[in-house]
Amino acid sequence: MIKNKSTLWLAALITAWSVDFLFWGKSMGVSFAVLMGISISAVLIVAYKENTPPAKKSLLLPALVLIFASLSVIRQEPFTRALNYLMSVYLLGAFLYTFRGGRWLEYNLSDWVIGVLKLILNTIILSIQFVFPEKDTQEEGNVTESESKENEDAQRLSFWRKAAPYLRGLLLAIPVLAILTSLLASADPIFADWVKELLRFISWEYFFRTLFILILMLPVAGAYLHALTKSQDEKLIGLDKPWPPRFLGFIEAVIVLGSVNLLFFSFVTIQFQYFFGGTSNISLQGMTYSEYARRGFGELLAVAFFTLLLFIALSAVTKRENKGQRRTFSALTVALTLFIGVILLSSLYRLGLYEDAYGFTRLRTYSHICIIWIGILFLSILVLELMGKWRSFTLAALLAVMGFILSMSVINVDGTITRQNLARAFKGEGLDTYYLQSLSNDAIPDLITLGDDAQLSSSDRAKIGGILACRAALLDAPRQWQSFHWSTYQARELLRDHHSLWDEHPTYKDEYDNWHVIIEGESRYCSQYAWD
Residue 49: which domain range? Predict the structure, then answer.
């Protein structure tokens, strides 16, 4: 396997212990980014000791992991934060899987699916083989007797070779002893009392935490082993010949694409009267803004997504045996892309009507960003189709997903919602302060900046002051450094600097330890949030 087994075990132990140290009994904060940094550093140090450097292209992945992990410390809006977590873990897995091969930029969807399965399987198998190694055999026939003797002497002197049997024995004995002790204690009350007295001196929390670290250390070591020993064996699917094989005839594909284009042409023709006629055409049909938007937005987004999948599938399986067929297929896909562009604009237009009527929410903001990136992905895949770069479809989709997540982080979803809804309130529209109260700390800077504007009614200003008072009370509790989050820190500092906006609204705890605030003589519950 590898020469420096003790280094690998130490790296796996430090990583597993870091999980316990960073997350046990603590809310998520900078701890996730720290863990990603430790994991990357650990595998790179072991690789350096083994003299097995990563492929140059693979070194781009740790940088991406740290970018998304860092964004999870900046943005606290739940969906944005979850996407940053997922993308960081996904890219870390890609780094371990392609550590020595570095061909992840060439992967298609099948390569990614098989890669995930291989990484999981090898993580399990290699960790077991590492704990229960086979007897050393002379694998290479050209090894000299002196070299063999030196290797054997080094292995005999190795701490791992001496300690491993004891560690394995302890790991196997612990669950056996736990089961038998429980049964014997049930059978004999005197023995049970003796066991209780003995256990009074044992901290069960630390026992289980230690057991958790030892168990977690095994798959971590397996994942690192895969990166060091298996990640260079990259046989890409469909590189020599297309996969899946192109089985669909050209005429059949043209009929499908032509039919879809005709359908979209009919729909787009009708849509243009709404783009240029505006609200008068909607009212002539007897629909309000909200009814018009509600009836079409979700369906149009589903149409765009389904058409994207259809586009990719037909491009992958359609036979195009001559230049004329390739040009015809490309012309139909260009027309399809143009129609989808209009449909996406129509979807955005309907969403805008819905937001004008009811204001901004998280789901509507997600949808705004998603529509833009679906359009970008459509254009990218169209360009790749025209260039004949079909293998790059998956890379384009991955980059679009990464762009979507980055956009969510840069835009600041909860801050955008706050600004847009307050802008509506400045124009005399209603303001849902209960919804504003449910937003994360990302919204606090905008609430402080805009919440005391004279254009707002005195009642809305008082309610926003109550929201700030609630948040100040909830953020007053001390936190460990592992739970540090930039959004929380920024909110706490701004609330302290602008206490005049909220200090006239007293807060108190009820008998269930829940916070309440007094707003204009009435008590209002301070919600506890999933982001905290």
Answer: 5-133+154-229
Alpha-helical segments (H) within 438-476: 444-450, 458-474
* Angle between helical axes of 5-23 and 30-50 (0-180°, round to 10): 180
Which residues pair with residue 517 across a beta bridge?
507, 524
Give dist(CA 91, CA 104) in Å, integer: 10
By CB neighbour count within 10 A (0-12 exposed, 13-18 middle, 19+ buried), where does 99 fall? buried
End-of-domain residue from the set 411, 445, 460: 411
- CA proximity to 83, closest of 401, 439, 529: 401
Which residues of the chain carry a pLDDT beneath 50?
A: 136-143, 145-146, 149-150, 152-153, 156-157, 276-277, 284, 530-532
First to last CA, the chain: 44
Number of domains the chain contains: 3
| The pLDDT value given to residue 63 | 95
pTM over 0.70: yes
Residue 87 near residue 405 (C-beta atoms within 8 A)? yes
For tokens 């998603």, the residue is: 370
E strand or H helix that includes residue 515:
strand 515-519
CA-based nearest residue to 37, from 73, 62, 16: 62
177 shares its domain with 214: yes
Give the whole-angstrom CA distance, residue 16 versus residue 215: 9
Looking at residue 285, its pLDDT comes to: 55
